[in-house]
Amino acid sequence: MAFDGITIAAMVQELNKNLEGGRFNKIAQPEADELMITAKGPGGQKRLLISASASLPLIYFTEKNKPSPLTAPNFCMLLRKHIGSGRILSIRQPGLERVIEFELEHLNEMGDPCRKRLIFELMGKHSNIIFCDEEGMILDSIKHVSSHMSSVREVLPGRHYFIPHTQEKADPFTIEEGDFIQLVCQKPCSISKAVYTSLTGISPVIAEEICYRASIDGSDAAQSLDEPARIHLYHTFLRLIEQVKEGSFTPTILYREQEPAEYSVVPLTQYGSGYERKTFDSVSSMLEAYYAEKNVLTRIHQKSSDLRRIVQTALERNRKKLLLQEKQMKDTQKKDKYKVYGELINTYGYGLEEGCRSFQALNYYTNEEITVPLDPSLSPGDNAKKYFERYGKLKRTEEALTEQIEETQSEIQHLDSISNALDISRSESDLSQIKEELTQYGYIKKHFSGKKGQKMQARSKPFHYVSSDGYDIYVGRNNFQNDELTFKFASGNDWWFHAKKMAGSHVVVKTPDGELPDRTFEEAGCLAAYYSKGRTAPKVEIDYIQKKHVKKPAGAKPGFVVYYTNYSLMASPDISGLKEL
């Protein structure tokens, strides 16, 4: 979710609660576009991180410190000189703009009190931190914006500060019903887009939420709303804005498939039961948790990109190979026809004239008369020999292709399972096992370090869940873990689950006597569905069987097993109700 005006309103409330009336103690600039301010207020000493990054502008309290350069940048030195021990008079947000203004008081060289404004603009690529005097003249900024860079506003020392209005947006706090209907409901676009492009500080997610609360499809045309729907939309919007004015915020992160999908400081009712909600005591803790988890997932995805490319390339190559092999196999179906031709020539060819191009004969296999083509330059015996040689060649080709197709299908199945393991990876140790498997099977070249007997050891452990009835459920993260889980960890009476005819993790439910409640069967099935290639489908067919009936063929690839007498169930890939240890 964008760092929108409503999130900033909640953050301003938190800033006032902790810092209003307090003082700045320390100002650091750890990055070119980032400040770390330590201040003491009613809430005690706090560390405030402000980022004017174009990709991720943020402001929140944090316990973590960041190292600063040995020589402070000029902007940081200027702030230290003027407001290094400044007293915070007020913290405010103009309208619902993505702007936070600190008004500070300090003593000048003569000992007289002076006021300054430190302004944080959190506007995506236009984000900036601007330092102004009491009259609004810019003293300096963390990013200088010249007329060559922007035709709307220069951000340079000596220029007058103002908030740029590049779009005709209304203030959500003051807009009246008539103006709302005129501004929003007359736009030639969807309703949700009309809301967030017409009102300051409203993000697309909040616009969709307003439409959802008003029981209106946000993708419908704004001009299609009738009068009652327009009035209802305005009053729904008004109730949300009243909530913001009152400072009634509930910082929440929504998780989808255990990954942070969205955050908000107001309840998002548009997201259904497929999302797990986690509330926080403060906006800062919500933001820090959300972006920390996002960064971990992003880092793992980046680190796995090379492995994904290797797997995807191998998959594409094998799928093309399989298509070619299947086409060649289709061509071998002609072999029986050539065998019949040869036999019919040997049976009826004794009376053929020299130079004959074909003859009619009764096919005694089907009791039908067929035409047998002949090469006029060859004798009947040589024609028969030619057809038998062609039959023999196609038969040998069919036998070879049958084996090759099985190998290619096995290769694709193996690569699909590795691709699934990459999808569910959460740590670098998960990736190291996958890399080891790809190296072992020749997809990655092995680099020798010169140390004999050295082998990469698996450090990650299977996912561990507890069912609603208290049974331990284990899920393999990759093929090596699947083998270990099924054939070394699980005992004979334990139950084994796997998505039917698709790549997925082995799921084992521990039980001493082989008895499980129905609900545990269903929950284990949900885990097998979630940790499979079918996780995006509404339902997945799951095979389940006691572990003692699961076998591994000799020489089979990791994760490959066979079983013959299994049960089946349909499971939803929703594990939001399960507890992970």
What do you see in this structure?
There is one protein chain. With 581 residues, this protein is of the alpha+beta class. It is 37% helix and 21% strand. It contains 13 helices and 21 strands. The strands form five sheets. The protein has a seven-stranded antiparallel β-sheet with strand order 20-19-17-18-16-15-21. Strands 5-6-7-8-9 form a five-stranded antiparallel β-sheet, with helices on one face. Helix 4 (191-198) packs across helix 5. The longest helix has 44 residues, at 380-423. The protein is elongated and about 125 Å long. The protein starts with a helix and ends with a strand. Mean pLDDT is 88; it is low at 449-458.
Question: Briefly, what is this?
Answer:
It is built from 13 helices and 21 strands.
> What percent of residues adopt helix (DSSP H or I)?
25-40%
Distance between the ends: 29 Å
Structural class: alpha+beta
Could you say which overall geometry the principal axes of the C-alpha atoms support? Answer: elongated
Radius of gyration: 35 Å
Strand composition percent: 15-25%
Biggest sheet overview: 7 strands, antiparallel
Mean of pLDDT: 88
Count of distinct strands = 21
Count of alpha and pi helical runs: 13
Strand order of the largest sheet: 20-19-17-18-16-15-21
Low-confidence stretches: 449-458
Topology readout:
Elements: H1 5-19, E1 23-31, E2 34-41, E3 44-51, E4 58-61, H2 74-83, E5 87-92, E6 99-107, E7 113-121, E8 128-133, E9 138-141, H3 177-184, H4 191-198, H5 204-213, H6 227-245, E10 252-256, E11 259-264, E12 275-279, H7 283-303, H8 305-331, H9 335-348, E13 358-363, E14 368-373, H10 380-423, H11 428-440, E15 463-466, E16 472-475, H12 479-489, E17 495-499, E18 507-509, H13 518-530, E19 540-546, E20 567-571, E21 579-580
Antiparallel strand pairs: 1-2, 2-3, 3-4, 5-6, 6-7, 7-8, 8-9, 10-11, 10-12, 13-14, 15-16, 15-21, 16-18, 17-18, 17-19, 19-20
Helix pairs in contact: 4-5, 8-10, 9-10
